[in-house]
């Protein structure tokens, strides 16, 4: 891996971690339920992107499919060194589906809270509830 590739990869990791931190801050500190839902969505998408980055190979990646029926030892060594790991991609696909279901449920709850209390501010809802 060249120095330019390494630097670019480190900048991508730093940017993803910064977005994770900002969305976590918004999730904890913002009193509006809708803003919390948006921050949770950004947090989940950023975490999925980070997982995909961790499973990616930078030097001449190949698909995770063995090209021949009878692989040799040298072919298998080359394959394991260059093949992209499919497990993070499968986990991210599952996480996207789960994240969508959770977000739909949270949006439904926010609509019901607004209908019942007339506000989406967590502090006002806690005061009104007694």
Layout of SSEs?
Elements lengths: L2 H27 L3 H22 L18 H10 L3 H32 L4 H8 L1
Order of helices and strands: HHHHH
Helix content: over 70%
| Global morphology | elongated
CATH domain class name? Mainly Alpha
Radius of gyration: 21 Å
Q: How many β strands by DSSP?
A: 0
**Relative strand content:** under 5%
Please report the distance between the alpha carbons of the first and last residues.
Answer: 60 Å
CATH architecture: Orthogonal Bundle
- Describe the sheet with the most strands: none
Write the CATH fold name: Helix Hairpins
Average pLDDT: 88
Structural class, from helix and strand content?
Answer: mainly alpha
Q: Provide a count of the helices.
A: 5
Weakly predicted, low-confidence segments: none
Q: How many separate structural domains?
A: 1
Please provide a written account of the structure.
The protein has 130 residues and is mainly α. The chain has one domain (3-129): Helix Hairpins. The chain is 76% helix and 0% strand. It has helices at 3-29, 33-54, 73-82, 86-117, 122-129. The longest helix has 32 residues, at 86-117. The protein is elongated.
Q: How would you summarize what this structure contains?
A:
The protein is mainly alpha-helical and 130 residues long. The chain has helices at 3-29, 33-54, 73-82, 86-117, 122-129. The longest helix has 32 residues, at 86-117.
């Amino acid at each position: 891996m060249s120095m330019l590739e390494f630097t670019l990869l480190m900048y991508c990791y730093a940017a993803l971690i910064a977005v994770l931190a900002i969305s976590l801050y918004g999730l904890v500190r913002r009193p509006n339920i809708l803003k919390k839902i948006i921050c949770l969505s950004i947090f989940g998408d950023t975490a999925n992107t980070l997982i995909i980055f961790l499973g990616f190979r930078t030097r001449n990646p190949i698909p995770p499919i063995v090209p021949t029926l009878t692989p040799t030892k040298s072919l298998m060594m080359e394959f394991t060194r260059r093949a992209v790991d499919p497990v993070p991609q499968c986990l991210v696909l599952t996480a996207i589906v789960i994240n969508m279901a959770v977000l739909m449920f949270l949006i439904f709850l926010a609509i019901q809270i607004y209908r019942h209390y007339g506000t989406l501010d967590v502090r006002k809802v806690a005061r009104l509830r007694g």
